[in-house]
Amino acid sequence: MSGQRNTLHVHLDVVGGIAGDMFVAAMLDAFPDLAAEVTQAVAATGMRPMPAVAHIAHNDGVLAGSRFDVSLPGQPAHAHQYVHQHPHQHSHQHVHWAAIRNNLLQCALPEPVKARAIDIFQLLAEAEARVHGTLPETVSFHEVGAWDSIADIVAAACLIERIGASGWSVGSLPQGGGRVATAHGELPVPAPATAILLEGFDLHDDGIGGERVTPTGAAILRYLSPSTAPGGERGKLARCGYGFGTRRLPGLSNVLRAMCFETASSTATSRDVIGMLSFEVDDQTPEDLAVGLERIRSFPGVVDVTQATVTGKHGRATARIQVLARPGRLEEVAQVCFAETTTIGIRVQEVQRVILNRSEVESEDLRVKIVRRPQGMTAKADISDVAGIDSGHAGRTGRREAAETAALLDKDHDH
């Protein structure tokens, strides 16, 4: 069995600009078979009234591609086009980030998609909080709190999860110019929160004004953490997608192009950013600490919790705790750690991690995780699925080995 597989790298060419709907349109243009899943994801949010979404073909007279249209029942098609072109006419909603987050947490979205959508929104909340000198949890969204922005972000999260790119990159971004009308009055372009989200990205002035990068588009870029370095081999160009915005630009297609490259990788890894919280506890009983750590482990956004025993001050046995969490949930997870343990200080950082590509299949009525390692594929059956077997260690081991062998054979045949 070979350990090689094709991995995907997506490069974004921000020709006309980038907004949430443009990103979704570009990715759906490249991966049209995912349109039904995007529609299901938006429906799973349970928004009322539920917006209708459509992936539609679009041609601006120069290029052909796609648009991602979001509208409410009874509204004309492309209703949000009017909002984007005439934002001063928008009935600005004051929607608290806490309310959006709670609704997302309670909805029927798959957990990985839900986590990505919340993380994108969290980046927006943190940027808005910096602009207004407040805390993210107290932020109220205006332009990005409406139903169309929620649909755009959920659709983007769904596509990012399903495409599973091992890397993203982006070229220089058009800065735009002038002013944009917002709930806070007219503000310079890029809008203040957008400018914060674009820190570290390359910008250029192509002579065309207006809002070229929206807050939602900037938050998606920030979440993707794309490489901005030019050059470098990307592999075979497998497909392209063109996502159009609603605005017409003079002499330029208002389009975002997604170029999807396939590369053969023997390591089959991807990178992402994870939050890491660490602290020590030396004055909590082991029984109570175990309860607290289990509650932390079950908190939304927490990926893993580990505990090790070290020697602390005064020679005392001390529990060293490490919690891995989604970057957008670090403040909330820290508060849970304070509530469930006796620690009075937590070290918090964001780190990059390298992940082996994996998938989960069902084999012999057991869930089996397939991992692609440099030396080949390995399989491991979920221990919880064999916990009820009454034939002891030998019986559990036999069932797991049979399921793992069958899963590897199936995967080998697939390749």
Structure, explained:
Residues 78-92 have low confidence and may be disordered. This protein is of the alpha+beta class and 415 residues long. A hairpin with a 2-residue loop joins strand 8 and strand 9 (185-188). The N and C termini lie close together (9 Å). Helix content is 33%, strand content 31%. It has a 4-stranded mixed sheet. Strands 14-15-13-16 form a 4-stranded antiparallel sheet, with helices on one face. Strands 17-18-19 form a 3-stranded antiparallel sheet, with helices on one face. The chain has helices at residues 20-30, 35-44, 79-85, 97-106, 111-132, 147-163, 192-197, 215-224, 286-297, 330-340, 392-414; strands at residues 5-14, 52-59, 64-71, 95-96, 140-141, 167-170, 173-174, 179-182, 185-188, 203-204, 236-244, 255-265, 269-281, 302-311, 317-325, 347-356, 358-363, 366-373, 376-381. It is built from 11 helices and 19 strands. Helix 5 packs across helix 6 (147-163).
